[in-house]
Amino acid sequence: MAKCVACHKPLTLYIAPDEEDEDEDETMGGSASAITGSYVDDDVQLQCGCHFHWQCLLDSYSMSECPNCGRNLITSTASGEQQLLCNLKNEGGLQERLDMLPILTEETYLKAYPEERRCRAFLEFCGEGDVEAIVDLLNDDAGEEDEESSGQGVGHSIDVLRYQDQIGSMGSGLHVAVQNQRMEVAWLLLLLASTLKIDQIPAMVLQAAHNSGIQREDQSGRVDIRLLKDSQGMTAEHRAAGIGGLWTEWLQSGRLKPPAS
Fold it and tell me: Which residues contact 221 (CB under 8 A, 6 or more apart)?
């Protein structure tokens, strides 16, 4: 059986049991595997034939070559775009000819700029429409800023709400929310990072934010998120105009319209 060429261990990953599930299994006399955890496939096979654990590859990857045999792994699509194909086998099954280049490019970037990892997670949550995860991330940042102000820690200097994708389209969270049609996320970002009048924001959005412990801060000296442009010079309003659909009413109401500078 093939082993990871980096750590020389079997191509599996141990999944620890969830604490709640573990307690429930013990109470109800669950199976030993449910209580002790289990092993799942964790095998990334590169085109050169080398096998890695997912994390082992992320830890050792150097942009274009296999970190084990040195073979150049970059190929081109029919349209001329670069790609790095692999066969990935994990708990979700086998994915053949998966392009890992976007993931590896991001990981390489984050090795150089680890302070942006939370910002990258923020953009991902915006695309997924995971409002709860966004709120948790913002509350965590607020807690760390409080520690910094009291001299107990070091906070983040990056404005997560206004972060723009440095290795992609330079889109903001609002661009991502619009592109993925995540209306709840768009409302949240307009509340927290724009000067849109509060009376234009639905009461249910305001109440949900209040219940989550977040509120709009003073926007003086801060860039309205609606002013941010991506690498093509497009604001979120421009992107919404190209999509239409559920954004039509937003465009008509002017919610996404950048304020006059």
Answer: none
Place of tokens 């509120």: 215
Please check whether residue 44 is in contact with residue 24, taking contact to mean a CB–CB distance below 8 angstroms.
no
Using the structure block, give the residue that is written with the tokens 């421009």: 238
Residues of the chain below pLDDT 50: 146-156
> Which long-range contacts does 93-99 make (Cβ < 8 Å, 24+ apart)?
none
Instruction: Give the tokens for residue 87.
Output: 């066969």
Residue 106: count of CB within 10 angstroms of its CB? 19
According to the model, what pLDDT value does residue 19 have? 65
**Interatomic CA distance for residues 245 and 83, integer angstroms:** 33
Which residue intervals of 76-202 are DSSP H helices?
101-112, 117-128, 131-149, 173-179, 183-193
Long-range contacts of 85-89 (CB under 8 A, 24+ apart): 85/47, 86/44, 86/45, 86/46, 86/47, 87/43, 87/44, 87/45, 88/43, 88/44, 88/45, 88/54, 89/11, 89/41, 89/42, 89/43, 89/44, 89/45
pTM confidence score:
0.74
Structure tokens at 28: 């109800």
